[in-house]
Amino acid sequence: MESPRLVNLVDARINEFLASRDSILVRIAPELRPFAQFSRDLLSGGKRFRAQFCYWGWRAVSPANNSTAVPGEAELDALVDLCAGLELFHAAALVHDDIIDNSDTRRGMPAVHRRFEALHREENWRGTGNSFGEGSAILLGDLLLAWSDELISRAVLAAPSLQTLIATREAVDVMRTEVTLGQYLDLLEERAWATTDPAQSLTRAERVIVYKSAKYSVEAPLQIGASLRGATLPQLDSLRRFGLPLGIAFQLRDDVLGVFGDAARTGKPSGDDLREGKRTVLVSLTRAKLDSSARRLFDELLGDPDLDEAQIRMLQQTMRDTGAVAEVETMIGERVRTALGELERAPIGDTSRAELASLARTITQRET
C-alpha cells in the first residue's frame, strides 16, 4: 500500500470516529456542538506524517524483511486505528501548544482557543472571552487526548501477542511523556533564557528539539508501528538511529519556516515564532554571532507580540547576515545524510527503505 492510500484511509477513519462521537456530545448537551465542529476542522488539515511513519515502521519489520508483506484486512484495520490515534494525539498537542504560545492561527484558521473566545463574544456571555477561550480549548485538547487513547487502545488489542501489546503501549506511553516534558522545556526556555549560562543556550535549544518534536514526530511513530508488528530490539534500534536525526532535521526546518515561511503556505503569520519569542537553535546561533549592543536590541525585539512587519524583516535579515540561517541549513543537510546512511544499513526491505527515504526528503524540504 502506498502512502497516499494510507492517508486517505486515516482521513476516513478520523472522520468516521468523530462522527461517532457527535451523537455522544449532543446527547449530553446541544451546547457541545462546537467541540465536534472545532475538532473536525482542526483534523481536516495536516499531512499525516506521523501516520505515515507509523505505517512504514510496521512495514519495515515485515517477517524475513519481506518488503511485499502488506497487512491483511484485520491488521490494516488495527494499523489505521493506530495511525488515526496518533493524529488525534497530535491535534491535542496543537491545541495546547497554541494556548501556551498565545497563537492566533493554526492551519489557516483561528486557533481553537480563539474560536471559543469568538463564541463567547458572539453570545455576549459574562466574564472575559480570553479566559473562556483558553479554558474551553484546554478541555477540548484533553478530550482529543482521551479520544486518541480510545483509538490506540482499540488498535493494540489486535496485537499478535501480549508481549507485542505491552511493547506498543510502552512506546506510546514514552512518546506521551517525552512530548509533554519537551513542551515544558520549550516554555521554560522562553522564560528562563536570560538567567541561564549563554554557553549552554545551543545545547538547551537542541534538547527542546529532541524531546518536544524530534522523537514525537518521527522516532516515536516508527517505534510504535514497528512494536505492533513485534519488532526485535536490533530492528527498533535501527529505526531509532534513522528516526532521531531525521526528527531533528524536521524540527530545524520547522524553525526556519516559523521565521521565514510564507503565511499563505504555512497557515500562520510570517515571523510568528519571532513574536512568540521561541528560543530555537536558529535564535541561539544568531545571538552567539552578535556583539553586545546588537544582541541587546535583538533580545528586546524577540518575543514582542506587537512586532510590525519592518521589525520582523530586520530580525530576519539579522539572522541571514550572521550566517545563522546558512548554518541551520547545513545542520539539516548533515542530519538528513546521517539518517539516510542509517536507513541504508537498516535490515529492512527495499520498499520500506525507499518509502522512508522519500518521506525523509519530503519532511525536510517542505515549504509548509
UniProtKB/TrEMBL annotation:
CDD domains named among the record's database cross-references: Trans_IPPS_HT
Q: Which UniProt keywords apply?
A: Magnesium, Metal-binding, Transferase
The GO terms this record gives for MF are: metal ion binding; prenyltransferase activity
Q: Which cofactor does it need?
A: Mg(2+)
Record protein name field: Geranylgeranyl diphosphate synthase, type I
What Pfam family is a match for this entry? polyprenyl_synt
InterPro entries per the UniProt record, alphabetical: Isoprenoid_synthase_dom_sf, Polyprenyl_synt, Polyprenyl_synt_CS
Q: Which domain of life is it from?
A: Bacteria
What are the recorded Gene Ontology BP terms?
Answer: isoprenoid biosynthetic process
PROSITE patterns registered for this protein in UniProt: POLYPRENYL_SYNTHASE_1, POLYPRENYL_SYNTHASE_2
Family, per the entry?
Belongs to the FPP/GGPP synthase family.
PANTHER family membership: GERANYLGERANYL PYROPHOSPHATE SYNTHASE, SHORT CHAIN ISOPRENYL DIPHOSPHATE SYNTHASE
